[in-house]
Structure formats: structure tokens, C-alpha cells
Design brief:
The complex is a heterodimer of chains A (345) and B (216). Chain A is built from 18 helices and 4 strands. Chain A has a two-stranded antiparallel ribbon. A two-stranded antiparallel ribbon of chain A has the order 3-4. In chain A, a hairpin with a 5-residue loop joins strand 1 and strand 2. The longest helix of chain A is centred in the first third of the chain and has 23 residues. Chain A is globular, with a radius of gyration of 22 Å. Chain B is mainly alpha-helical and 216 residues long. Chain B has one domain. A two-stranded antiparallel sheet of chain B has the order 1-2. In chain B, helix 4 packs parallel to helix 7 and helix 4 packs antiparallel against helix 8. Classes of the chains: A mainly alpha (345), B mainly alpha (216). Chains A and B meet through helix 8 of A and helix 9 of B.
């Protein structure tokens, strides 16, 4: 977007008789380009990817590579078919593929990454008009498609192995699955004591999608993003705090205020979703106040799905539902234009 | 397709039927009556029976409206059309209920919903009320067959991908894409096939595609 506005700069300028330059906004131009942001975000995901490979073996590389290849091919294919400029080098398809790969269980057969990245990039993004016009987050849409289409394959979680030689690892339930089906006591029993449970969740030694398990690795990437100011705190903080407070109040079996907010915060795809998926520029509100509303909505929906619905994890569906509401939020928090007349009543 | 064009060129009955199937296909070109196209196309059999019912109702409604076109007062033409359509839908509904009990149970409400089909009402309004009986009959057959064709194509892909069967017979012994059976899959299939037929039209027949003329 920045590049195109730079290109049009000359045309937009109108020099009036007093010698002042009149041009349309934006007047302050930054040096950031779509290219640079996309590749930087992709690089910031590398710690999470490395930890995924470390825990789940070489097959994690394979799954992620299939997702990236599928995304790049879909982008190229649709842009070629539509006669558009082929822009697979801008990194957006690469980032979508990488995020989708990090959201896959490591045990999936090869066609799931390929088909779901096609749905994510070709249908969710390109058919709606390409980068900047999509309603839904492409990576999450690809994953939602995969989860609904192949429910068994997408919920078969490999236990972390810590070895590159593991071919057929043990499968096990995710911490959230255990929490939902068998309760907190059983979850603590599986991991030993509570302190050990927190530690393992933080490091990522647990079953789950290959890039979501290691909270520390994701937070390293997130620090990187905050340093470059690519994301603001509004969505993640409102999302996480809503979920934590809600889990503390309603999450327990023994009445109000007996839940375990830390387990809810550290497990599932929450950290990855809140920092990387919900903050997608295209599909979240543009105004800060709207972003806070967006984050709170995501938190409430995630909590509702985790505690009451059929799925143990609800981050994905919560963000997708809030993506639908983004235009409404943007419209309802639109700031007042100074000097404009109010509506006649 | 107003009466003026019909009066100038006077297309023969075959041309009217072919135009209804391809050029003015209710689902792929005009994008109307999409609700049943998604609801009943989870299997070839239900799609087939629905298509037959629509061909029948469309043709009979067009004939009736065309016969009565000089006695219907323009002010109240819509209620009259609705009465005629619901009369013929009742005939189709009761016949299917008597002849194909099991499939009828599956389709349930959707046969009765033919009353509300935009494709039938628009043909009564745009064609049958301005043309003689024979062209109106063939127009109804054409539009109905176009709808039937669309239902068959959509339900072919949805049944094959969703259940792995065709007409209830197991073909590939697997269920490759569960999502094809859900309403979401219906929208996916309809949209992709619509795009495919548009592409054929643009690529091979030099058309502008549905909606191409108005610019979006």
C-alpha cells in the first residue's frame, strides 16, 4: 500500500498560485513496506518454529514446508489466472503458510497442509480481492477448514519426543483436552505437581500444534515485534486479560473464583493467536478503542468455547467470529470529525 | 429478455430452451434461487427429484400465466402469480409424497419452498406475462432444465466429495471432504462452479461473465 501511494505522489500534488503544495493525506510517510513487515514477522516466528522442530522432530519441518509451498503456489496460481501482477515475493503468502504450518498437529498426512493452505490463500484471500481485502485471517480460515473437514486427523496430537529419530510417536491429549474431559486434578497428576505443570507449559513440553506449544519461544518473537512497533498492545492485552479474568471467575468446578487462569493462558494456541493472528492488520479494527473491543470479544468467545462448547480450544473460532464483526466495530467507534455538522434529529 | 426482443427476433423453441439452460441459467448466471441449490444438493437423488419438480412447476406456471395474461389486472398480478405457483407446487408436492416416500422425507420442506423461488416468479413476470403459450412453455422448460442441470452438477461434486458415493452407491470407499456436506461446502461448491462457468463463458464464447456488464 505504501509503495503504491509513493508512486502516485507526483500525480496527487497540486501546486497552487501561492506556491504551497496541496496533497491528499497521508502526509507523514514511513519507510515500512508490506515486504519488510511480512518478512520481519516471518523471521520473528523462527524461535517458535525451532522449538516445534525440537519437540516434534523433523516431521514438523515437512508439515510447515508443505503449508508454505501450498500457500505460495495458490497465490501464484490465482494471481496468474486473474491476470494480476504476481506478488508472491511480498511475503504475505509465505507468512500465511508459516502460520498455518505452526497451527497444524505434526501427525497430519501431506494433503491436509496443501489443501487447507489453498483454501486459506486462494479462497479466503485472493478471491476476496487479494492482500488487504480479505475479511477473515487466511491462516485461521485454512485451519478451520482442515479442522471441520478432517476432524480426526486434526485432533491427533503427538506427544513431544525430543528426538529427531522418532517416526511413530505416542499420541496423547492436549492439556486443554485433559482439563475439559477429565478435570484439573488429572491434569496436575499427568504433569507431576503444579509448579512442574506451569514450567512445562511455559517451555512447551506438551502435546499441541507444532508451533503453539512453546510460550517462551513465541514471546521472544513477540518482543521482536514490539521492538519494531509492528503490533500494539491493545488487542493482545485486552484478549489475554479478559480470558484470564474470565477463566479465574468461571473456570473452576467448585464455584466462582476458583478457576486456573494461568493454565488457560499458557495452554492451547492462545499466545500464538493473540499476538500473531488477532493482530493481523487487515482483519482487525483500525482504531485503538475498536481494537480493545475486538480483544475483549475474542477473549469472551474463547472462554465460552473452552468452557461450554464441544471443542476444547476456541481461539481460532473466536478470532474468526470477531473478524466478521470488525467492520461493525470500526463503524461504531469512528471518531468525530471536527467541524462536521451533527445529524439532524 | 423483454417482449420487444422476442418480437423482433422470434427465437424458435429450441433456442429458448438452450438459452434457459446456458445463457440465463438461474443459478450460475443469474444467481437466484441459491437457497435450494445449497439445501437439497447433498445427494444426487434429492437434487434430481428437486430438479424434476422445478422443471414441472416452472413449465406449468408459465403456461398458466401466459394463458391468463390478458385477464390478470396489472395491479394485483403478483398475488395472482403466487396463487398459480402455489397451486402447481401443491400438485408436485403431493405427487412426490405419493410416489417417492423416502426421498420426499429427506427433502422435507424444500419442495413446498418452490413457491418462493425467485427463478419461477421472475419468469412468470418477465416472460410468460408478455408471450404466447408455446414460447412460454418452452421458456419454462428451459429455465427449469437449467436449474436441474445446476443442481445435478453441484450435487454430483458434493455427494462424491462428502460421502464418497454417487446415487447412494459407494464409489471411492472413503469420505475425502466432510465439509462438502455442510452448508459451507454448498456455498464453496456453488461459488467455485459459478466461477468455472463464468470462466468458460469468457474464455471460449467471448462473454463478459455474470455481472461483468455492470462492472463488479
Amino acid at each position: 500500500m505504501e509503495e503504491s501511494s509513493k508512486g502516485q505522489k507526483v500525480k496527487e500534488q497540486v501546486v497552487n498560485t501561492q506556491g504551497l503544495v496541496v496533497s491528499v493525506s497521508p502526509h507523514i510517510r514511513s519507510e515500512e513496506t508490506v515486504n519488510k513487515i511480512m518478512w520481519t514477522v516471518s523471521i520473528s516466528l523462527s524461535p517458535a518454529f525451532v522449538m516445534g522442530v525440537y519437540f516434534f522432530g523433523y516431521k514438523a519441518i515437512w508439515v510447515t514446508a508443505m503449508c508454505i509451498v501450498g500457500s505460495l503456489f495458490s497465490e501464484w496460481f490465482v494471481q496468474r489466472l486473474a491476470g494480476k501482477e504476481i506478488a508472491i515475493r511480498d511475503g504475505s503468502a509465505f507468512l500465511t503458510g508459516l502460520l498455518l504450518g505452526l497451527n497444524m498437529p505434526v501427525t497430519v498426512p501431506f494433503y491436509i497442509p496443501l489443501l487447507s493452505s489453498f483454501v486459506g490463500v486462494a479462497i479466503t484471500k485472493q478471491l476476496f480481492g487479494g492482500l488487504g481485502y480479505n475479511i477473515f485471517n487466511p491462516a485461521l480460515m485454512g485451519r478451520a477448514f482442515a479442522l471441520i473437514t478432517w476432524p480426526r486427523a486434526m485432533t491427533t496430537w503427538a506427544a513431544p519426543t525430543l528426538s529427531f529419530a522418532a517416526l511413530d510417536g505416542k499420541t496423547t491429549a492436549t492439556p486443554l483436552g485433559i482439563l475439559k474431559e477429565e478435570g484439573l486434578a488429572r491434569l496436575i497428576e499427568v504433569f507431576g505437581d503444579k509448579a512442574h505443570l506451569y514450567k512445562q507449559l511455559l517451555v512447551g513440553y506438551r502435546a499441541g500444534s507444532l508451533g503453539e506449544t512453546s510460550v517462551i519461544a513465541i514471546l521472544i518473537g513477540v518482543a521482536f515485534l514490539f521492538y519494531f512497533r509492528y503490533i500494539s498492545w491493545h488487542i493482545p492485552v485486552s484478549f489475554l486479560s479478559t480470558l484470564a479474568i474470565g477463566a479465574w471467575v468461571f473456570g473452576g468446578k467448585t464455584g466462582l473464583f476458583s478457576g486456573e487462569p494461568i493454565i488457560h493462558l499458557l495452554s492451547g494456541g492462545l499466545i500464538l493467536g493473540a499476538f500473531y493472528m488477532a493482530t493481523d492488520y487487515v482483519t482487525c479494527p483500525a482504531v485503538k478503542k475498536g481494537q480493545v473491543i475486538f480483544g475483549i470479544g475474542c477473549g469472551l468467545l474463547t472462554l465460552l468455547i473452552r468452557l461450554k462448547a464441544g471443542y476444547p480450544e476456541g481461539v481460532m473460532f473466536a478470532i474468526l467470529i470477531m473478524n466478521c464483526l470488525t467492520p461493525l466495530i470500526d463503524r461504531s467507534v469512528r471518531s468525530k470529525v471536527f467541524g462536521a455538522k451533527g445529524k439532524k434529529k | 429478455m423483454g417482449s420487444t426482443e422476442a418480437a423482433i427476433r422470434k427465437p424458435n423453441s429450441l433456442q429458448i430452451v438452450v438459452s434457459g439452460i446456458f445463457k440465463e441459467n438461474a443459478i450460475f448466471r443469474m444467481a437466484i434461487s441459491l437457497c435450494p441449490a445449497i439445501a437439497v444438493t447433498t445427494g444426487l437423488k434429492t437434487g434430481f427429484l428437486m430438479g424434476i419438480a422445478v422443471v414441472f412447476v416452472n413449465a406449468m406456471v408459465n403456461v398458466t400465466v401466459s394463458l391468463m395474461r390478458n385477464v390478470i389486472h396489472p395491479r394485483i398480478r403478483m398475488p395472482i402469480y403466487m396463487l398459480i405457483i402455489s397451486g402447481w407446487v401443491t400438485v408436485a408436492d403431493l405427487s412426490l409424497a405419493a410416489l417417492y416416500r423416502d426421498a420426499y422425507k429427506q427433502m422435507g420442506l424444500y419442495i413446498q419452498l418452490i413457491v418462493a423461488f425467485a427463478s419461477i416468479l421472475t419468469r412468470a413476470e418477465n416472460f410468460a406475462s408478455k408471450n404466447k403459450v408455446v414460447p412460454s412453455f418452452f421458456d419454462g422448460i428451459g429455465i427449469g432444465t437449467g436449474f436441474f442441470f445446476a443442481l445435478m452438477v453441484i450435487s454430483f461434486f458434493r455427494e462424491l466429495l462428502g460421502k464418497g458415493t454417487l446415487w447412494g452407491i459407494d464409489i471411492i470407499h472413503a469420505k475425502p471432504l466432510l465439509i462438502a456436506l455442510l452448508p459451507t461446502g454448498g456455498f464453496f461448491a456453488t461459488g467455485l462452479l459459478m466461477g468455472f462457468f463464468n470462466w468458460i463463458d469468457i474464455r471460449f464464447y467471448g462473454g463478459k461473465g455474470a455481472g461483468g456488464a455492470s462492472g463488479h
